[in-house]
Amino acid sequence: MDAVRNGNDVAVVRDLGAGFVAASSESPDAGTAKESRSACKRPSRDRLLLEVRDVSLSFGGIRALRGVGFEVARGEIVSIIGPNGAGKTSIANVISALYQPSSGRILFDGKDRTSATPQEVARLGITRTFQNLALFRGLTVADNILVGRHIHMGAGLLASGVFLGKARNEEARHRQFVNEILDLLDLGDYRNQQADTLAYGLQKRVELARALALEPSLLLLDEPMAGMNRDEKKAMVEYIATANADLGISIVLIEHDMGVVMDVSDWVVVLNHGEKICEGRPEDVQNNHAVIEAYLGQETK
Ligand SMILES: Nc1ncnc2c1ncn2[C@@H]1O[C@H](COP(=O)(O)OP(=O)(O)O)[C@@H](O)[C@H]1O
Ligand SMILES: [Mg+2]
User: Fold this and answer.
1) 252 Cα–ligand 2 center, Å
2) Which atom of ligand 1 is nearest to 99's Cα?
3) What is the DSSP letter of 290?
4) Which 3 state secondary structure label does DSSP give 131?
5) What ranges do the domains of the chain cover?
6) pLDDT in tens, 54-100
7) C-alpha pair distances (Å), 233 with each of 28, 195, 227, 272, 288
8) CA distance 149 to 168
9) 91-121: burial string, b at 16+ Cβ within 10 Å, e else
């Protein structure tokens, strides 16, 4: 389909090289649109959960992030979009402390966590899913989700494999929690199935379940719908919206599908070549010329 450079016509720009898909009637509509968002201003600073301040990250000569800053308030879904190589995964890696930024700061709940380890960040309630499938092959669906609770487990419970007395009670409580997550994400039928034997869309859902098992306050989702068919995407959007609305989890969503982004996001941050080129409400970002140019530029490469 022809790409149109006129900002007013952005809704017809579909499926460019970067995987950018503008909102259209073909996009999965989970009925989860945040209807009140257009009336909303951004929340006050005391409701901020995550503050990314002026973060830069270099790999040798490659400047993956250049002075990127944005905020996530409690209860929000903030989407990060941008062409391939824009720095989306890098920012997720910095927030989850897999990478230390070259400069800049990460504040969580008002406190500087820039130097925290990945374990400390997980204990603070930040968890994530990865762009590629990252399940424990050979473990059942239930056990994969149970592993997600490691942070809440007493010393040695996972390692021992023998559950006696107090440990048995603790394990039963964790199993109960796992059952609740399985029900919430409609995975109950697969609980005893080996996770890597499931269809791709279901494996991505198990990853989401495992992340939720940590009881996070902030969930980072790195392209959770990549490679999914339309029905799988639609289901995933619903589960993400459920995690946000029913469990009160704030979400940073890295996603290419603008239909999804428009439907679920409170706020959108756009990266290109490691820089934030724009941020705003979804409908404003979608009509922003710099955003359109960024995606069209990608198409010609
Ligand atoms: N571990 C790494 N080593 C070297 N370069 C990297 C590494 N991770 C990312 N990059 C580079 O940083 C830039 C941003 O990558 P990335 O954050 O993965 O982008 P995106 O997720 O938006 O596609 C790219 O140029 C990529 O090649
Ligand atoms: Mg990426």
Assistant:
1) 13
2) 1
3) H
4) coil
5) 136-208
6) 999 999 989 999 999 999 999 999 999 999 999 999 999 999 999 99
7) 7, 19, 9, 25, 26
8) 15
9) bbbbbbbebebeebebbbeeeebbebeeeeb
CA of 152 to the centre of ligand 1 (A): 32
Nearest CA to ligand 1 atom 11: 64
Give residue for tokens 């799988």. Answer: 232
Residue 205 token pair:
């859902």
In contact, 272 and 248? CB cutoff 8 Å: no
Q: What is the pLDDT of residues 10-28, one digit of tens each?
A: 332 323 233 333 333 344 5
Place of tokens 């704030």: 250
Model confidence pLDDT, tens digit, residues 175-223: 888 999 999 999 999 999 999 999 999 999 999 999 999 999 999 999 9
Torsion of CA 22, 27, 32, 33, to 10 degrees: 30
The residue count for the chain: 301
